[in-house]
Fold this sequence. Notes:
The protein is α+β, with helices and mostly antiparallel strands. Helices cover about 30% and strands about 25% of the residues. It contains five helices and twelve strands. Helix 1 packs across helix 2 and helix 4 packs across helix 5.
Amino acid sequence: MTYCVGLRLNEGLVFLSDSRTNAGVDQVGTFRKMSVFENPGDRMLVMMTAGNLSISQAIRQIVAEHVDADGRSIWNVTSMYEAARIVGDAVRAVHQREAKALADSGIDFNVSIILGGQIGAERCRLFQVYAAGNFIESHDENTYFQIGEAKYGKPILDRVINPATGLDEAAKCALISMDSTLRSNISVGLPLDLLVYEADRLAVTRFVTIDEKNQYFRMIRDTWGEQLKRVFEGMDDPVWNAAPDITTNVLSSGNMHSKPVRVAIPAHVNRGSLETAPLQSLAQQAGDERQY
């Protein structure tokens, strides 16, 4: 498993990927998931992959080298949309060549790709390419894509990222998102590749490979957990069975009649000494006021 995130902002693009690949607890390796297609002054594209490593590497090789019958390649197309089509075609080519043999061995054709960048005077664009070779594009309503083990790092992105977010703030948010994933899933691991691209530069703006010794990421890991705990401890506890005049932090009030759905105690079970409230159920027997 892996985790990659790409963010499209008014100021440019941010890409972050981990580098762990595993096929079981005894087969954990480090393979970089981010590839940069850069011709300074003409284009800067980033491709990140998640899924089956052999499929991902085959797709990357085709994207880097293939020229189609019309002479199109990743190095000469004039729009990011055309670049996404080339990546999609590469996915389909590898599927056609490998999918049956993989299926015969009980292996799914599993790959997800984030592609983003800028070509010439066109604006920055960001795409997610699926295992079928089709793709979608990021817009202001959905300004980032995640692939791989995405669920742990999603909440912070949803709360912070919007098109107006600055590049450094977005990079910080992506690192916090990655830290949340690293803490919750051992199939994602260091080192990380972080690339920041400033719009219209047509070359990589900033890049760093982050390992366990990286000072800033260590600060993120320590501070984020401490701040979360501090915020949590600063929130008031809930008030139960509040009187009518209590209006703050009320979780339940004295006039509420909510009850749990209790399973009826079988006749052969000795009843305890405490009385409970009447049972609540989704249905009642017709003509019987008892609840089941």
